[in-house]
Structures are given as structure tokens and as C-alpha cells.
């Protein structure tokens, strides 16, 4: 059994990591799915009330509320899959909940890319979906995510994955993490000239 959770600021590549997982036949549970389900259960509009419900859930049941509700979904997928990817953890409190439940079988993967790189990618992604919002919008989103405890969550990562090269290189690195299984630790570097390498934090 292996549960991989991803953290990372907007545009870092969490969606791409989820795409690689799906290609590998690994089910993906997103924290967004949990909130959408809850929004529906409350008879609210998932497109409009998503943010309010996420906030209400945390106020009513504590900061780990969403992670807590994702556990049955994850356990359900683990019944017939060896590995599950959880997309988009938001805080260290959520990380702790997963560590409590899955122990060494939980790998926290932090996906990182500099602000300007993320901004360019989000602008490119938004070209068709009118998502491009310039640097200020992204700075505000970063601020909001960091306010939830994203920075602390990233600090707890078992594996740091740099996403500063090509998409192909990034996909390869994600596949490495998936195939290695539990227990992987260290940084998968951004050095495009060398082979993908994994090194332990203490080596
Ligand atoms: N290494 C890369 N090279 C080129 N484009 C990339 C690379 N990594 C990601 N992208 C593209 O950048 C955009 C942002 O990546 P992605 O959607 O995976 O980020 P995210 O972390 O899920 O962002 P958000 O939290 O905003 O949803 C996407 O259009 C993706 O295809």
C-alpha cells in the first residue's frame, strides 16, 4: 500500500502529477472532490459555494476536516489498487492526519517551481480559458495558500520535486516517485544535463 500526497503552490504542476498517476492506472483523489461532494450533500451549488463550504467544514470540524473526509475515499480505492495519489493537500495539519493514518506508507511530495515560471505556465494554460490574471493575481493566490499552511506542509515533504525543466522531464520524475514506492526521501533535482537523481536529505 502506498499513498502519495502532493503539495505545491498554484501552477507548480500538481495537475500534471495527477495526469501521470492516471496514465499509470493509479486512482487520484482530490481534496476538491471532497468539498464538491459535501457541497452537493448540503444542497448547494458546487460552482458557487465551493469556497464557503470548504471554510465552513474547517470551522465546524477543525482544520483537518477535509483530509478526514477524504480518508474513506482513499481507503475505498486502496481496496483494489496498490497506490493512490491524493492531489492538493493544503496544510501541515492535513499532512499530520495522513501520516497518522498511513504512517511510512505515506509519501508527501512537494512540487516546486519559481514564481515567474509558474506565472508563465498559468498564463499559457489560461490562454483558452481566460484564466490569465497576471502576476498580482498569482501573488494573491500564493498568499492565500500560504495562509492555510501550505509553506509548513511543503517543509514536511519526504520528496521535493523540482519542476523547472520540460514537461517530459517532470513526467519522468513523477513516474520515478510512483515506481519507487514508499520510503523514498530526498530531492529530485532540476539539473537538466544529468540523469534524474534521488539523494537522501542527509547524504
Ligand atoms: N515542466 C513543464 N513545462 C511546461 N509546462 C508545464 C510544466 N509543468 C506544468 N506545466 C503546465 O503548467 C500549467 C500549470 O501546471 P498544473 O496545472 O499541473 O499546476 P497545478 O499545480 O495543478 O496548478 P493549480 O494549483 O493552479 O491548479 C499547466 O498548463 C501545465 O500543463
Task: Give your account of this protein's structure.
- The protein is 53% helix and 15% strand.
- It is an alpha/beta fold.
- A seven-stranded mixed beta sheet has the order 2-3-1-4-5-6-7, with helices on both faces.
- The protein starts with a strand and ends with a strand.
- Bound molecules: adenosine-5'-triphosphate.
- Adenosine-5'-triphosphate binds at residues 8, 10-16, 121-122, 125, 163, 165-167, 170.
- GO terms for molecular function: ATP binding.
- Residues 180-203 are annotated as: Disordered.
CATH class: Alpha Beta
Assign the structural class, choosing from mainly alpha, mainly beta, alpha/beta, alpha+beta, or little secondary structure: alpha/beta
Name the CATH superfamily assignment. P-loop containing nucleotide triphosphate hydrolases
Q: Sketch the topology as an H/E string, one letter per element.
A: EHEHHHEHEHHHEHEE
Fraction of residues in H or I helices: 40-55%
- What does the overall shape look like? globular
C-alpha Rg, in Å?
17 Å
Bound molecules: adenosine-5'-triphosphate
For the sheet with most strands, the description reads: 7 strands, mixed
Name the average pLDDT: 88
Count of DSSP-assigned helices: 9
* Beta-strand residue fraction: 5-15%
- Runs in which pLDDT lies below 50 for 5 or more consecutive residues are 192-197, 199-203
Strand order of the largest sheet: 2-3-1-4-5-6-7
Organism: Natronoglomus mannanivorans
Protein name: UPF0200 protein OB955_04730
InterPro entries: NTP_hydrolase-rel (IPR022970), P-loop_NTPase (IPR027417)
Family: Belongs to the UPF0200 family.
